[in-house]
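Researcher:
Attend to token order:
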Amino acid sequence: MSSSPSADLLASASSALAVLLVLLACVELGDAAAAVGVYRLIQYDLAGAPLGSPAASLNHHAAALPLPAGADLSRSALVAPLLDLPLAFLREYLAEKKHLGGLLILLPKKLNDEDASANSEGKGQVKSSLAELEKLLLHEEVPYPVYFAFQDDHFDNLLSDIRKIASSGQPASATTGGYKLVVSTPEPRKVPSPTISNIQGWLPGLKGEGDTEQLPTIAIVANYDTFGAAPALSVGSDSNGSGAVALLEIARLFSRLYSSPKTRGKYNLLFGLTSGGPYNYNGTNKWLRGFDQRVRETIDYAICLNSVGSWDNELWMHVSKPPENPYIKQIFEDFSDVSKEMGVSVGIKHKKINVSNPRVAWEHEQFSRFRVTALTLSELSSPPEFLESTGGLYDNRESAGAESVIRTVRLVSESLARHIYGLKGRNIDVFAENSSLAINPHYIQSWLDLLSQTPRVAPFLQKNDPFIAALKKELSEHTADVHVQSDVLDGMFTFYDATKATLNVYQVASVTFDLLFLLVIGSYLIILFSFLVITTRGLDDLINIFRRPPSRKVKGA
């Protein structure tokens, strides 16, 4: 006896529903909680030794501090706010080569836009923590992926949920459920032939009639690039964005003086924005090598500007030649005279260069190697260590103040003007406030803001980068014969790409939940199946389905 069409239709529908539910039950339950931008720890080789993090892909359950005793993090990605992450913990994992699935460091959300009302103690703590963290991560090989992100409400909620799961005494895993952090990115590749670009411009001086001698030159120089643990976040507002901005304003001021033959000085002014500063001032070396020797010999002296955005009362003049040197003595006296009028002080630090050692601590030392008198003006009283104070994570807009840059510009510009125009000993303010030659605070503020939003790690800046084009355009507004010199970065460095990525955060159900869910669905399907059989074929047919069929006996031949 055949079943009715309606019964067949019902049976087909129930079968399809059963298949769908079984498939759903077999799939791991997970919802994308968030997708956020993250910044990868730098990866580079120094003299063939790998440093930073060579890993980029991440696919592990999230864990948070504090950790239970004996926790195994080899399959976990640790999520830690900056101020909660003990450096001793990281040092231990690196020194003992312990396995860690990954590390996500949450930076304070105000890092790029500090609240003006925030207390200085809190800012100091963040800055010192970041400096120590960078120092550790930059000089070690970190065998697991490390990312930075800015802490916000989503991450606060994520940390809270992770800690609730951890309070059960079991780490997040496929068994307990929790959150999974996933970064899907291709394997990082070497940056081929990283370029450094130097930008120069001239303000030619005024020659007298019948004067065939080359005019002397004064060079004002600042490197504009940066280096830090996260290349995509290394904006270097103070080091050395402040120096580059000061140079641009000095060029603007003297372009007004030099625009008229009546006020044009008898000195050429050479302005140089150099690259490769963190890498032994490699760009400065190449820039100087590119000059004809006769041009180098016309340079009376060079003033290099480095980290001038956070000083109040004291600036330092670093030199390689002894303070008794006539040029050095004269320059120092010029700075001292103006600084006294400004109510600030300029100190002098003498450090001989070791010609046999290729490492240079200051930019002026590259000039000294070419026998050109030079100095560095900086708020730093001592030379920084290798790859330190080069515009790391802590060097953001809050680190550089327009007032400090204005003081630097005033000190350098007035000193230069008195030297160029023979005004020594005469209390004359060439760049007096409210005059047509006054320093422009808005100009300085705007450029500081721009540089504080622009990562400038040289290997990731192409020679046709819009930022380099913007610097060239700006220098062209104030100087002549503007030229960009692009060259390959020399030295022992190899860099790798993949500096940014997208982190997907998934909320994952536990296996226990999956099994329970499967059990419920299975019970439901059995009941549904039994109901359909009873209503369409009767109870006897249902019993016959589960009854063991009678065995068949094989008759002998």
